[in-house]
Amino acid sequence: MALIQLELPYHEGAYWLTQVRHLLWPMLLESGRVDAVEKQFSVDEEISLGARFDIVVAEPVAKIIHRRPFTEVHVKHALQQYEEDPFAVIKRFLAPHKVDRVTDVPFAGGALGYFSYDLGRSIEPMPELAAHDMPLPELLVGIYDWAIVVDHHKRCCQLVSHARYNTPDSLHALQLSLLQPKEQPDKKAFSVVADIAHNMDKPAYAKAFRKVKDYILAGDCYQINLAQRLAVKVQGDAWQAYDQFRQLSKAPFMAYLQVDDGQGMPFEVLSMSPERFLQVTDNKVETRPIKGTRPRHADAAMDKQEAESLAGSIKDRAENLMIVDLLRNDIGKVCEIGSVKVDALFRLQRFTNVHHLVSIVRGVLASGYHAMDLLRGCFPGGSITGAPKLRAMEIIEELEPHRRGIYCGSIGYVGFDGSMDTNISIRTAVICNQTMTFYAGGGVVADSDCDKEYQETLDKASQFLKLVAQFKTHS
């Protein structure tokens, strides 16, 4: 069946999310558009940055949830359980519904959700050292038959579907329902009810930092991404927190997921990620690793000085290059021989609260491979582990007090048409059991300075800290 495209009024994805929040597992992938980056890019470049579309989904026809070693597939009231590779389970579920890609429609059905950092344990054996105090699923995706796609360049919006599960009549009924403004239920105002707790204070971070330096000097690794976790008690409607977060910190790869863990525990994911992990369009592969950070300043001269310092930093360029090489190798596992190219190195990109160095690596997916094979072959992203990847992950497990969970995993979609776009889930908060957690980290190399690296984590967390301050109750 040809793609069904039903017109809707032009609104941001955030509006359409509120229109479907009463349905099961609503999710929003939102673009920060030109607010997130300097207005120096061409339209094609903005599109490539993820700055064109918002995608809203709800009411999945199936839910796929992985807790090692089992992958559960929930379809209506039936449950099937598998012990095979969770990436293969999703790939098999998508395979019977293969469709051709439609230009200017990034997603019209398929898998959408998150792949947590700890899903890496299903790919490589890892030690079990860090505390596992928020045992959410390692993978959680819905199989969605329709999507609301907002095109910010054409300033239009459509309900789209290949009708693999729905009928044209049911989709028209959904369109009519979406055209009726929903009365938003009264929900308790979001508030922060305690002080932030860090899982590593500065002395503890310094101890872990020294251990990383020891490993580097011993030749175990070249770079380790060392992160701290911030946690705070909250109450009320998490959407209010996301809505405020998106005002504070626009980014190209934002996301809001309102889900449950398959065992009755509801939770939300709020992501303001600046970083693309992997994109596949017509078998063309792209990844955009970020390494190198400086804070933004309100003073234009100071802001320019920070940007120039980053652009000319030998250390930050070397750090970025290590991850570019790692990712070239990772995507080369499933790309055509000779197709992997570095199209940009150390590009300065400005975001709301920080400057970053971004590189671009591209390739062509080899015949016989699927986007899920690419995701598995590169998971988790090298920019948030270090190099070499497996040893870096072992060191992270040893030195960070808690498992990362969704942080440094990936959020995005894999469509029935084989297209994929995913972020690196940094600048990402999880709200579960009245606790909001947020991580911030940075790459440590041989000549890193402890004070500067610790400050970098706070710079990256600055918008989260502002969010907490805005919602803090004062008794």
Brief overview:
This protein has helices at 13-20, 43-48, 86-94, 168-178, 202-217, 238-248, 300-311, 314-332, 371-378, 389-399, 450-460, 462-471, and strands spanning 4-8, 27-30, 53-57, 62-67, 70-75, 78-82, 110-115, 139-144, 146-151, 156-161, 191-192, 197-198, 223-235, 253-260, 266-273, 276-281, 284-287, 290-295, 341-350, 354-364, 386-387, 410-415, 420-423, 428-432, 435-444. With 475 residues, the protein is an alpha+beta fold.
Describe the structure.
This protein has 475 residues and is an alpha+beta fold. The protein is 28% helix and 32% strand. Strand 14 (253-260) and strand 15 form a beta hairpin. The strands form two sheets. Strands 1, 2, 3, 9, 10, 11, 12, 13, 14, 15, 21, 24 and 25 form a 13-stranded antiparallel sheet that branches. Strands 4, 5, 6, 7, 8, 16, 17, 18, 19, 20, 22 and 23 form a twelve-stranded antiparallel sheet that branches.
